[in-house]
From TrEMBL:
<dbReference type="GO" id="GO:0047259">
    <property type="term" value="F:glucomannan 4-beta-mannosyltransferase activity"/>
</dbReference>
<dbReference type="InterPro" id="IPR001173">
    <property type="entry name" value="Glyco_trans_2-like"/>
</dbReference>
<keyword id="KW-0812">Transmembrane</keyword>
<keyword id="KW-0328">Glycosyltransferase</keyword>
<feature type="transmembrane region" description="Helical">
    <location>
        <begin position="20"/>
        <end position="46"/>
    </location>
</feature>
<keyword id="KW-0472">Membrane</keyword>
<dbReference type="GO" id="GO:0071555">
    <property type="term" value="P:cell wall organization"/>
</dbReference>
<feature type="transmembrane region" description="Helical">
    <location>
        <begin position="375"/>
        <end position="395"/>
    </location>
</feature>
<keyword id="KW-0961">Cell wall biogenesis/degradation</keyword>
<dbReference type="GO" id="GO:0000139">
    <property type="term" value="C:Golgi membrane"/>
</dbReference>
<feature type="domain" description="Glycosyltransferase 2-like">
    <location>
        <begin position="167"/>
        <end position="382"/>
    </location>
</feature>
<feature type="transmembrane region" description="Helical">
    <location>
        <begin position="333"/>
        <end position="355"/>
    </location>
</feature>
<protein>
    <recommendedName>
        <fullName>glucomannan 4-beta-mannosyltransferase</fullName>
        <ecNumber>2.4.1.32</ecNumber>
    </recommendedName>
</protein>
<keyword id="KW-0333">Golgi apparatus</keyword>
<dbReference type="GO" id="GO:0051753">
    <property type="term" value="F:mannan synthase activity"/>
</dbReference>
<dbReference type="Pfam" id="PF13632">
    <property type="entry name" value="Glyco_trans_2_3"/>
</dbReference>
<comment type="similarity">
    <text>Belongs to the glycosyltransferase 2 family. Plant cellulose synthase-like A subfamily.</text>
</comment>
């Protein structure tokens, strides 16, 4: 009797429910594949037709004016938020202070939220060293850590000298821009009044340290070469990466500045600025050195922030995006569907649910057919798309590197 009851329930309820879940996963699998294919087609188009930012937007090298001297160079603020960064603070401060830009047109602002007195003193000494070399460097601290990085950046914007600046470059404490960084990025903002952000690519100095850093390099290289490149080329919009970018101060202020309502304050700012009609440009040829998390705890924390933060932001901003009157309906659809729904929400849910639950459970339901294209072909193609962004990691041939 019990066996008959179970068979009846299995046939009428459990199997149809499982078929429904499989069907949903197949649709999501198709959406993820099409989105990945679309981004790679855009990248191929950019490569074939050489659609570099310099060809899309006006760019002219900055030169000293014979009459005005350095006054034709805009004031630039370089912000470096940090928190107990004992290992890297000297590198980041040093790299910022070595940026090639007229000294009287550059302000370096170190936003030190450190709680270790020893590190705080070390940061003071480093800032003092560069101040004696003529660098206009400010070390700003606050008596709390409200809002964390977003709170520090928000507080840093309140200082009176910030109002004298036109553009703001932001670098995390483990980032080291090349000396010509401002010379290669700021001209985009100067000559194109519609641009609010110039984003550079990340280059990883410790990518070969372990398997985890190699996998991160592959994933992030794909993020830049496919997601950022396609967003910049087709929609002049993408998510700010929180560092290695130069902002137009007026655009930031128009959108309301930094907010600490989510753990992805950088994406929050980018979406709000984009909804005000501003454009962004990604410059793949400009790379900024940085470090990847090499400890699993740090990697887990980073991935949690990157996975949960966008979903929370999407929840808070969905209606704001829909009601927006400043951008076209196509851009709103792109932000809602491609930028948020597929890339930031669906892909994370699908990867876990389909491969860790549906496929293992399918052995108990032999009558449910799961197509090979969803379990083999699509995953293989998506993995191949990711690997192409970092060719040396295919088959992990770089393990032979000494």
């Amino acid at each position: 009797m019990k066996t008959m009851w179970w068979r009846e329930m299995r046939s009428l309820l459990i199997v149809p429910m499982f078929k429904c879940l499989v069907a949903i996963c197949l649709v999501i699998s198709l959406l993820v594949f099409v989105e990945s294919l679309y981004m790679n087609i855009v990248v191929i188009y950019v490569k074939l037709f050489k659609r570099k930012p310099e060809k899309i937007y006006k760019w002219e090298a900055m030169q000293e004016d014979m009459e005005l001297g350095n006054q034709n160079f805009p004031m630039v603020l370089v912000q470096i938020p940090m928190y107990n960064e004992r290992e890297v603070f000297q590198l980041s401060i040093g790299a910022a202070c070595r940026l090639v830009w007229p000294l009287d047109r550059l302000i370096v602002q170190v936003l030190d939220d450190s709680t270790d007195p020893t590190i705080m003193e070390m940061v003071n000494i480093e800032c003092g060293k560069w101040a004696t070399k003529g660098i206009n460097i400010k070390c700003e601290r606050r008596d709390n850590r409200n809002g964390y990085k977003a709170g520090a950046l928000k507080q840093g914007m309140r200082h009176s000298y910030v109002k004298t600046c036109t553009y703001i470059a932001i670098f995390d404490a483990d980032f080291q821009p090349e000396p010509d960084y401002l010379q290669r990025t700021v001209p985009f903002l100067i000559h194109n009044s519609e641009l609010a952000l110039v984003q550079a690519r990340w280059k990883f100095v410790n990518a070969k340290k372990c398997l985890m850093t190699r996998m991160q390099e592959m994933s992030l290289n794909y993020h830049f070469t496919a997601e950022q490149e396609s967003g910049s080329t087709r929609h002049a919009f993408f998510g700010f990466n929180g560092t290695a970018g130069v902002w137009r101060l007026a655009a930031m202020e128009e959108a309301g500045g930094w907010k600490d309502r989510t753990t992805v304050e950088d994406m929050d700012l980018a979406v709000r600025v984009g909804l005000h009609g501003w454009k962004f440009v990604f410059v793949n040829d400009v790379a900024v050195k940085s470090e990847l998390p090499s400890q699993f705890k740090a990697f887990r924390f980073q991935q949690h922030r990157w996975s949960c933060g966008p979903a929370n932001l999407f929840r808070k901003m969905t209606m704001e995006i829909i009601r927006n009157k400043r951008v076209t309906i196509w851009k709103k659809l792109y932000v809602i569907y491609s930028f948020f729904f597929v890339r930031k929400i669906i892909v994370h849910f699908f990867t876990f649910f389909f491969y860790c639950f549906i496929l293992p459970t399918s052995v108990f339901f032999p009558e449910v057919n799961i197509p090979t294209w969803s379990t083999v072909y699509f995953p293989f193609m998506i993995t191949l798309f990711n690997a192409i962004a970092t060719p040396r990691l295919v088959l992990f041939s770089s393990y032979n590197h000494n």
